[in-house]
Structure formats: structure tokens, C-alpha cells
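User: I'm putting together notes for a lab meeting next week and I want to include a structural view of one of the chains we've been expressing. I don't have a solved structure, so I'd like a prediction I can at least talk through. The sequence is below, exactly as it appears in our construct file.
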Amino acid sequence: MPTHDLYLPRTYSTWRPRRTPFHPFAAVWVLISLWIERMRQREALASLSDEMLRDIGITRVEAARESRKPFWC
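Assistant: Thanks for the context. Below is the predicted structure for the 73-residue chain, given as C-alpha cells.
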């Protein structure tokens, strides 16, 4: 019995965008921006009332634990 190979057309593109490396100063800038944003968010979380924390589904203990984390974590 003869065999037949079945070649299906590709349904996806094999093209991938070329990733250009960050300039070292740009990478540092992005990292520092991320750290500042984390600090800002954790300060805002620590200042929420119990009712607001209940609305977003976390406890005061969880909020305190998150707000005590260092900015680089």
C-alpha cells in the first residue's frame, strides 16, 4: 500500500521581531522607575482603611506584610 505525506500550510507566522538590547543607562532607568512605583503602591496599600481592604479582598495582615517588603522584591 502506498504512503502519502500530507503537508499542511502553516497557520502561523514564523516572523519574530528582532529584540534590540537596551542601552545600560536605559535599563537602569527602567529598574529605578519600577522600584519607585513599587514603593508608591505599597505606601498606598498601607494607608487603606479596613473597609477598603475588605473591598479588594485582602486582610490588614496581608497588606502589612506586603507593605513591609523591600522595594527590590
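A couple of points you could mention at the meeting. The mean pLDDT is 87. Helices lie at 24-46, 50-56, 60-67.

User: Perfect, that's what I needed.
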